[in-house]
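Blinded run. Sample ID left blank on purpose so nobody reads anything into the name before looking at the predicted structure. Input follows.
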Amino acid sequence: MTLSRQGGFRPIGQILAHDVLPALQGARRLPLRVSCLGSSSPSDADAPRGHCLALGEVTCPERAMRLAALVVSKDDYPGAVAFPGFYPRFAVIEDRAHGLVLAGAIRADVILWQPPVASDAEARRIVAEASRLRGEAFAADGRGDGKTARTLRDRASLLEARLVDPVWREEAAALLRLPQAA
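Blinded prediction complete.
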């Protein structure tokens, strides 16, 4: 006599591998840190000494996105008093291990969250393209073309914002599909 597995039961090994272990791994990487990267002025966006302002810590990506959106929409950055003329460029959510959960460019008090890469191969392509753009920016700086260099660096930074840690890729992609995340 053979047992049929057509019912709604799954083997315990499958439950552990697909449900329990990933949840435990994610819990070890909490809390999530929300921060804002920026510079002292829009014209200083390429300065080597950018500023990172901590916005807070939360326990889930949804709350992290809401916290970042609230701070950006109110244009009220904690700690910005120490940096007169603070110009925000990116909102960043990282886990305890400094793995990127989600990042987005700040434009007109709105965060344009960048979609995470879907695979390691796509991540390698992004790294190569961002490196190429940064090389072109370096060459433009050498020619004295600061405006082109700044544009190229901004494009590279936007690409790099997609380099979400593999642990968070699926969840980040799902969050961006939700209507309130748009």
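Unblinding after everyone has recorded impressions. Strands lie at 32-39, 51-58, 87-94, 100-107, 110-113.
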